Structure formats: structure tokens, C-alpha cells
Amino acid sequence: MTDPTRPVTGYPAPPYAQPNGGYPYSANPTQTQPRGPYSNAYNPRAAFIRRFVGAMVALFVIVGCILLVVWLILRPKVPDFRVDSLSLSNFNVSSASQSLTGTWSVGFMVYNPNKKLSIRYDDVESSIYYGPGFISGTRVPPFAQGTKDRTSVNATFSAANSFVGASVARGIDEARARGSVSFNVKLLARVEFRRGGWRLRRRLLRVLCRGVAVSLSSEGGLGTLAGGSRDCQVVV
Known about the structure:
The protein is of the alpha+beta class. It has 2 domains: 49-76; 80-235, Sandwich (Immunoglobulin-like), CATH 2.60.40. It has 2 helices and 12 strands. The chain has helices spanning 44-74, 166-177; strands at residues 80-94, 99-111, 118-130, 133-140, 143-145, 150-163, 180-195, 198-199, 203-216, 223-225, 230-231, 233-235. Strands 1, 2, 3, 4, 5, 6, 7, 8, 9, 10, 11 and 12 form a 12-stranded antiparallel sheet that branches. A hairpin with a 2-residue loop joins strand 7 (180-195) and strand 8 (198-199). The longest helix is centred in the first third of the chain and has 31 residues, at 44-74. The N and C termini lie far apart (119 Å). The chain crosses the membrane at residues 52-73. It holds the Pfam family LEA_2. Keywords: Membrane, Transmembrane, Transmembrane helix. It is found in: Membrane.
């Protein structure tokens, strides 16, 4: 007779087989499987690029802030230009050949209004027009100005039987008959503002002197500036 208090012995029951060949359920169903061996690998090239880009951005921001502070402190002002004198000699115009002859000597007065900045002018070029029609151009020697300086600059233009076109020749001929001809004078230069060791970025200076009137004599092809000095428009 079997003793009911005797423990039952025998082989353990086989584990329950999961469908589709799966594994038994994990004791912790929320536990994820380990990632592959390269999932968290360190990429030195990507890290270097990120650091380099970050450093360049920081450098540009710092340099921009410095330039902005310098600009706000120094506050550069554009120079003032005006035509103080103009003489014309050997002037002649022919509507038939649409040509022009003459020598213009133009005197500019340039004023630097800055209290803290000097100005350097390089690659200075000047030209003279009748309306939009080009007549002659010339180069002017470079020059520099200290703070609050006034500088006289001269430009000489020459034309010898230069072709100017029918509209320009006819317009000048008609204006000459009235005793006065107005010209436009332009000047271009590369300017650099300076303060001790500081040098701000070079800029293109554009000067336009509109309607510079020249009174012509009845004989000899001579002319002088009419109406006094003429202020010019200046853009940097």
C-alpha cells in the first residue's frame, strides 16, 4: 500500500513549447534584447566635424561682435566732396562730325569729418560726362587724410576730336549757344578707415557731382565754373 506522506519522485515535466519554434516567455517581459556590437560605437570623424563646425561658428560670432563694437564706438562717417573750381580750354564741338575737343581742369575739396578715424584713398579714378554721355576719364594719385583734414584734389580731363555721338554733340552745341554748359563729374576710389592699428574693411567710394555749370566765353573756347562751389553726392 502506498504511503501518502512519501514525496512523489520522477522526471520533471518538459517545458511548454512555444508556437513557431519560439523561446519560452521571459520572466521579465519588458526586458529588451541586447543591441548589436556596433550600435554605440564611437565615431571619431563625426565628432571631429561637429567640434570643428562648432568652433568655426563660435569664431565668426566672436569676430562679428568685435567688429560691431568697434564700428559702434568709432562710427565712421563718409567724407564730404565738392567741386571748388573748374576751368575749360580749347573747347570746341562739332555736330557734323559728332566730336568734341577740350581740356577740363577740376578742383575737388575733400573733407574728413571723422574725429577718430583717418582715411586712405587708393585706385582713384575720375570721369566727366554730359548727361549720360561719357566724354573723358583720368586717374588721380592716391592720397590720405588725417582726422578733420581738408584736402585739395585735382583731376584733368582731355578730349581731342573724341566721338561723343549725335545727341551729346547736339546738346552741348545748343547749351553753348546759351552761354553755359553743365557737366556731370564722377569719382571712384577704394577707401580704408583707420584708427591707430585698427583698419576697417576697404570700401568702394562713389562720388557724383551733378550739373556742374561752366560759363563759356564768346571766343577762344574758354570756360570757368559758374554759380560757385557744387556739393557732390557721396556713397560708401
